[in-house]
């Protein structure tokens, strides 16, 4: 079982909420659970978050019953459609490589 605790916020294209909340992704074989301390957005379809090494996008579809693996108190549970995980260093490397190919300069 893999447990990921990170800060998440609702996808800004779908919600006006800009606050970050603590969230937990639990992957147990073929079962994925997602908990977040955000009960103000019942109609959000995506949460974007990150921890020290990775960034995550969790696509959800409505509320779900709280499972037995939950360790995040005062949280809401969502039915997970899928989770995207990407490395932050990969994104930085990709931007550097694209700027080398096209000789682009990005302002700081």
Question: How does this model look, in words?
Answer:
- Helix content is about 15%, strand content about 45%.
- It has a six-stranded antiparallel beta barrel with strand order 1-2-3-6-5-4.
- It has one domain (about 1-100).
- The protein is globular and about 45 Å long.
- The protein has one helix at about 90-100; strands at about 1-10, 20-30, 30-35, 45-50, 55-65, 75-85.
Task: Give a brief outline of the structure.
The chain is mostly beta strands and 108 residues long. The protein has one domain (2-102).
The proportion of residues in beta strands is: over 45%
Shape: globular
SS element count, helices: 1
Low-confidence stretches: none
Strand order of the largest sheet: 1-2-3-6-5-4
Average of pLDDT: 78
Instruction: Summarize the main sheet.
Output: 6 strands, antiparallel, barrel
Order of helices and strands: EEEEEEH
- What is Rg? 16 Å
Overall domain count: 1
Terminal-residue CA separation? 41 Å
Number of strands: 6
């Amino acid at each position: 079982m893999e447990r990921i605790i990170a800060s998440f916020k609702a996808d800004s294209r779908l919600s006006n909420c800009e606050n970050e909340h603590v969230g937990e992704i639990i992957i147990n074989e073929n079962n994925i659970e997602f908990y977040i301390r955000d009960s103000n957005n019942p109609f959000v379809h995506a949460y974007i978050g990150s921890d020290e090494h990775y960034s995550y996008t969790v696509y959800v579809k409505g509320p779900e019953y709280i499972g037995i693996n939950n360790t995040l108190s005062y949280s809401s549970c969502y039915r997970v459609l899928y989770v995207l995980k990407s490395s932050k260093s990969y994104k930085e490397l990709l931007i550097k490589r694209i700027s080398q190919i096209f000789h682009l300069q990005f302002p700081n």
